[in-house]
UniProtKB/TrEMBL annotation:
Belongs to the PNP/MTAP phosphorylase family. One of its GO terms (cellular component) is cytoplasm. GO terms for molecular function: purine-nucleoside phosphorylase activity. Pathway: Purine metabolism; purine nucleoside salvage. It comes from the Bacteria. It comes from Cellulophaga fucicola. Signal peptide: none annotated. Keywords: Glycosyltransferase, Transferase. The keyword Signal does not apply. GO terms for biological process: nucleoside metabolic process. InterPro entries: Nucleoside_phosphorylase_d, Nucleoside_phosphorylase_sf, Pur_Nuc_Pase_Ino/Guo-sp, Purine_phosphorylase. This is Purine nucleoside phosphorylase. Residues 22-268 form the Nucleoside phosphorylase domain. The purine nucleoside phosphorylases catalyze the phosphorolytic breakdown of the N-glycosidic bond in the beta-(deoxy)ribonucleoside molecules, with the formation of the corresponding free purine bases and pentose-1-phosphate.
Amino acid sequence: MIKQEIEDSIAYLINKGFDSPEIGIVLGTGLGSLANEIENPIEAHYNNIPFFPLATVEFHTGKLIYGTLEGKKVVVMQGRFHMYEGYDLQDVTYPIRIMHRLGIKKLFISNAAGAINLDFKKGDIMLLEDHINLLGGSPLAFKGVSQFGERFVDMGEPYDVEMRKTLQGIAKKENITMRSGVYASVLGPQLETRAEYRMLKIIGADAVGMSTVPEVIVANHLKLPIVAVSVLTDECDPDNLEPANIKEIIRIAGETEPQMIKLFRGLLKTM
């Protein structure tokens, strides 16, 4: 990754009308409907943005959408990238650097995840308070990283405390069940074995997924305040494990999405 690539991507988006967005939003698996609520949208498909990766997952749309939501200028990433698609961690996090360069001051992230904590149920929303990186690498481990920010980034509090408190207050007011816990990010695309679910519980994970952590690391590298939520789409009980059903996971994500949208819109109102 070089700065000129980023500048070429930015020049294209500015020419499209992406004008100084305040908030960046990343929409996870089955959670793309928020993009439909943006006022005066301008769309840029990934395959048209210079140096942008392409979304290869069938339920990820693959476009940046700029517009207004709750009176704030936002840029929404409808469809994200994963290492399991064959991308490296710099590719996966390239859009975060682009949104930051466009001018966002805060970042909201959503994902679909499996519940490791058996007190959590599918259909619940989990607020990320911490994470465990099991991807085997870092998006900051490349030559020249220091030209984008400090090489050694503190990760003692990766998720913004104030935005977390605000979301908890919104959830209480709206009577939304929102858990709080630790998210583990794994490579995928295969789901976990019984033994792997047991391991994840032992090391302190409350939920598991295949995204988010690289984006959070880069956001911290850029000193960009971030908040993230998981929609829990399945329960990962190793003693009562059912075969993975991707259609069911997408269905649960879609049913829970209105609550996530209410949380994100409520948070935008406070900005």
